[in-house]
Description:
By secondary structure, the protein is α/β, with parallel strands linked by helices. It has a single domain, classed as Glucose Oxidase, domain 1 (3-Layer(bba) Sandwich). Helices cover about 35% and strands about 25% of the residues. Helix 5 runs parallel beside helix 6 (about 120-125). The longest helix is centred in the last third of the chain and has 19 residues, at about 185-205. One of its GO terms (molecular function) is metal ion binding. Pfam families: RraA-like (PF03737).
Amino acid sequence: MKTENAALMQATPDSSLLRSLESVSFPTLGHFMEDGFADHHLRAMVPNVKVIGRAVTLKLLSPDAIPVNRALSQLKPGDVLVIDMSGNHTHAPVGAVTACAALNAGARGVIVDGVVTDLLELRSTGLPVFARGTSLLTTKKRDTMSSLFNEPVICGGVVVRPGDIVLADDNGVLFAEAPALAAVIDMAQASDRAEPAILARLNDKAPLQEVLQCVMP
């Protein structure tokens, strides 16, 4: 029991780190990190969002809606449901009802390595939903028991573990463990603080070679 509790404490993101992540531009993290960035085909279905939360993972081995409903019932405030569709990019496991359920459970968002449906309704809920696209074809209530809950999954080409920090906005999705983010957060914040002055110099027609020589993209 002590070992399990220690592991749980280690996996729980530090609240101060999460607060720091609220203020940083996610693309700035890309200046200092290389791993954990999901495939660019995963994109925001609901625009103008910023997601910071803890990963709750689900791997669907068949297009079955029942495991999704079970996973939704386990969500807690601050969670992000991450669904690995096992390469199935035709059946949508998330739509208006599932998004509403996740929102009312306190979830920060849902990320599907596949497609979703009910696009207009998803946008009306305001819940951040990320996917590869949309489809009219949906999962079915089969209860095949062919799923894995809260085990490591693959999403956008990245291994995602339960409790990983999920960062997502209109630019893309990043999955990372807390120590990896803690190692770069100070540099990222410093970079963000420096950017307005750099933009001002560029707008003032300062010589580009002087302004850009030490600047990230």
